[in-house]
Amino acid sequence: MKETDIMEKPIAAGLSNSGNHHQKPKNKSKKLLILALSSTLLLVGAVVGIVAGVTKSENSGRSHAIVKSTCSSTLYPDLCISAISNSEGAMLKVSNQKDVIEVSINITVKAVEDNYFRVKKLCGLKNISHRGKIALHDCLETIDETLDELHKAIVDLHQYPNKKSLNQHADDLKTLLSSAITNQETCLDGFSHDETDKNLRDKLKEGQEEVEHMCSNALAMIKNMTDTDIANYEAKMGTTNNRKLKEDQNNGDGIQWPEWLSAGDRRLLQSSSVKPDVVVAADGSGNFRTVAAAVAAAPEKSSKRYVIRIKAGVYRENVEVPKKKTNIMFMGDGRRNTIITGSRNVVDGSTTFNSATVASFN
């Protein structure tokens, strides 16, 4: 081996050792920096998490307080609160009184849909009486009407309080929820007291009564909200406007009209020369001989009143107005002159829902 080889090795080794000696402090500094950054990020994340948790807790607490306060005006406050609390994501949608009502109605819609499938399942059972089959069919029809009414109420709530006057909003919402309550009672009333029909009724009773109570809660909350808003508005506008409002309701003639009757319909009823869209006359002098035929010919989902004048006479028929035939108004020739009477009755096997008769009207 050459002397130069021997001499170079230590020098090379020395250089190598010297390089490693100077590199260690840099690596250590990098590790410390990474650890410091990681600790900082963890600390920031923890702080953000704590703040988010506190904010979420505060929002949740506010939502619960709003729900509890709004539900306190109902007949079934525990049901009102539990229905919203147990519905996934419902609390996140609550920031005011109107939100509570809308969430409550949406939950009620789901309950009505559950009842629909329950009735459909019962329709498939064997050994159901004729009366029972009719009653189940009536329930399906009333459930369908209830869903329509609740969906309309939700739309009206979205528009509240800007689309119509406060009084009109209040009347429409209360009418829709009142009708939905009645539908549940109508469904259960259709079953006879025979053992078979009674069993069917018992299978539906819990679901129907739950929806009835939920609709009752929504109605109470709507009344509380609209009454407060109307009172605040009237106080802001002063007593002159209050007096004018009452005069408008009476139309200045002392007649106390039902709250649900619109101003346009009041004027229509007061008019001495209402032009009907069609005329029913048993003697053939009108457009139709029967009321049912006139209803069948009426437009569906009409946006304006469709007036059917029924001339003097006795019309022995059962008149059914499908829900698609909206805004129909019957106008007779006097309480004792125009009479509609049908032959269906509960004793013969018809349900109350299908046995209603219009005896006489103006």
From TrEMBL:
Query: In this protein, which residues make up the domain named Pectinesterase inhibitor?
Result: 62-221
Keywords of the record, alphabetical order, are: Aspartyl esterase, Cell wall, Cell wall biogenesis/degradation, Hydrolase, Membrane, Secreted, Transmembrane, Transmembrane helix
Say where the protein is mainly found: secreted
**Metabolic or biological pathway, per its Swiss-Prot or TrEMBL entry:** Glycan metabolism; pectin degradation; 2-dehydro-3-deoxy-D-gluconate from pectin: step 1/5
Q: Which PROSITE patterns match?
A: PECTINESTERASE_1
Transmembrane domains' residue ranges: 32-54
Q: What is the superkingdom listed in this entry's lineage?
A: Eukaryota
- Subcellular compartments: Secreted, Cell wall
Q: Which reaction does it catalyse?
A: [(1->4)-alpha-D-galacturonosyl methyl ester](n) + n H2O = [(1->4)-alpha-D-galacturonosyl](n) + n methanol + n H(+)
Q: Which SMART domains match?
A: PMEI
Which EC number(s) are documented for this chain? 3.1.1.11
Residue ranges, annotated region (Disordered)? 1-25
Q: PANTHER family of this UniProt entry?
A: PECTINESTERASE (PTHR31707)
Q: Which family does it belong to?
A: In the C-terminal section; belongs to the pectinesterase family.
What task does this protein carry out? Acts in the modification of cell walls via demethylesterification of cell wall pectin.
Q: Cite the NCBIfam families for this sequence.
A: PME_inhib
The protein's name in its UniProt record? Pectinesterase
